[in-house]
């Protein structure tokens, strides 16, 4: 059987709103922006390192937010991250733990759903 691993995830964003992407994902969530390849730089959007993987935000002209489909970002500092999001006026949706890991949902500036979950022990 072929072994596959996740390399990156891309979510959509409206055109021309990269400053909001950087403020939310970079400043508020603390992800580090990485350079897009030169051949793709002119398309807009932003890429971020997310541990060993990447989170790409790609411009979609007919943008519609993902309300159910979502990215889950794991952290060792779930309570601190929740406090920063609340202080920034971001919506928080509590949910039941999964496998003993606490989690909650929020949304990016464009309405895309995001899950924040405690990192697995030993990960």
TrEMBL record:
Kindly give the SUPFAM superfamilies that the UniProt entry links to this protein.
Glyoxalase/Bleomycin resistance protein/Dihydroxybiphenyl dioxygenase (SSF54593)
Task: Name the Pfam families for this protein.
Answer: Glyoxalase
Report the residue ranges that make up the VOC domain in this protein: 5-119
* InterPro entries assigned to the protein according to its UniProt record, in alphabetical order: Glyas_Bleomycin-R_OHBP_Dase, Glyas_Fos-R_dOase_dom, VOC_core
Q: What is this protein called?
A: Glyoxalase
The lineage's top-level taxon is: Bacteria
